[in-house]
Amino acid sequence: MLNQTVPASSFPAETSQDYPSCSEQNTKEYVKGIKAAAYILVILLSLFGNVMVVRVVHKTRRMRTITNYLIVNMAVADLLTTVFNMLPTTYWILRGLDIWAVGGWIGEALCKLLPFAQSLTISVSVFTLCAIAFDRFFAIFRPLKRVITFRVAKGIISSTWLSSVIISGPQLYVSTTTGEKGLAHCKEKWDPPFDENTAPRDYTIALFVMLYALPLTLIASLYTVIMFKLWRRQAPGQELSSNQENKDKTNKKVLKMLVTVVIVFALSWLPLYVRMFVMFAESARYVCGLPYDMDFLTLFLGHANSAVNPYIYVIFNENYRRGFRTALSRRRRGSSRELSRSTTRRTKSTRLQEKEANLLHDDSRQKKAVLRAFKRQNSEISLPMTTTTENL
């Protein structure tokens, strides 16, 4: 199906159990190292970039716009992809075992949760891109009336998650583990009530239409109309006001950024859809699945999309660049301030210790001086008495 979580759970792993002639995949250590390093890099970039997007919008008052709130919604979905899909994939690459291979109820829960999470996050991202496209459309064609208000935006964000849960819900029903502990596989069991042979294909086609073909067609249509409006706004011989010209420039920059995000999303997930349709069309030919490296690459490209988005915002948008720089500089200043405080505390402590040592030293010197004076006084008193006695 479309939303297999890791390559091991896709067709090669499933069919190799039924077809013992299938060769073992992913055995070369240096290949494992390269693939694991690629995933670890993407994970780190995704965690840092998406957390920074959420932080910048939350901390910067002027960044709290409807478009940015929708972008934050995508960032949250990308963070879930990183945690629930990229990390288990990295685990499989390094260990050669699915994370649900532990078996038992934990393995069963992971088998259901991870494919569901991937389908959920893809759905949220797609629906959010559609919402952003409509927001830009109304901002250009209805500039004097805010159609999508903050209240409406909150409802849209809630709807993206609710509709995504409904669309991805079948994963929780059909995904199940087979095999013993350490050898468990995550498979789909559609029967009952659906036909085991046709249901996976039909569901994948439905996902392709709902989460790829229709949304991207709609987004492309909206952005085409917007671009035509912006680039053709100025009629021959007519000059725009400076205020309107500045607004158009800003809208063009935002539009370029959003179009880039949509294109990257489409290119990132298209290979995975192609792979699935090839598997359905040529199932007799690819009994053991497509070549493993191809399986890995299609999934890696889809996951890498979660790491790319934040840096697209930074490249195209000055506000995000400034926000990233400000957040990083604050962290550096905070670290420097903490180091300075620590150094100051150590300096004060050292000074107190030196002062106490000096006081103790001075006190000891005073005691010695008093003792010497006392001895000297006693010697002066006892000397005359001795002399008198001798004279007598």
SSE inventory with pairings:
Blueprint: H1 11-18, H2 29-59, H3 66-95, H4 104-141, H5 150-168, H6 170-174, E1 175-178, E2 185-188, H7 199-231, H8 242-281, H9 292-316, H10 318-391
Antiparallel strand pairs: 1-2
Helix pairs in contact: 2-3, 2-9, 2-10, 3-4, 3-9, 4-5, 4-7, 4-8, 7-8, 8-9, 9-10
Continuous helix count: 10
Strands ordered across the widest β-sheet: 1-2
Q: In percent, how much strand structure appears in the residues?
A: under 5%
| CATH fold group | Rhopdopsin 7-helix transmembrane proteins
| SSE succession | HHHHHHEEHHHH
CATH architecture: Up-down Bundle
* pLDDT averaged residue by residue: 80
Task: Walk me through what this model shows.
This protein is mostly helical and about 400 residues long. The protein has a single domain (about 30-330), classed as Up-down Bundle (Rhopdopsin 7-helix transmembrane proteins). Helix content is about 75%, strand content about 0%. It contains ten helices and two strands, in the order ααααααββαααα. The chain has helices at about 10-20, 30-60, 65-95, 105-140, 150-170, 170-175, 200-230, 240-280, 290-315, 320-390; strands spanning about 175-180, 185-190. It has a two-stranded antiparallel sheet. Strand 1 and strand 2 (about 185-190) form a beta hairpin. Helix 2 (about 30-60) crosses helix 10, helix 4 packs parallel to helix 7 and helix 7 runs antiparallel to helix 8 (about 240-280). The chain is flat and about 100 Å long. The N and C termini lie far apart (about 130 Å). Mean pLDDT is about 80; it is low at about 5-20 and about 380-390. InterPro entries: GPCR_Rhodpsn (IPR000276), GPCR_Rhodpsn_7TM (IPR017452). Keywords: G-protein coupled receptor, Membrane, Receptor, Transducer, Transmembrane, Transmembrane helix. It is a multi-pass membrane protein. One of its GO terms (molecular function) is G protein-coupled receptor activity. It comes from Pocillopora damicornis (Cauliflower coral).
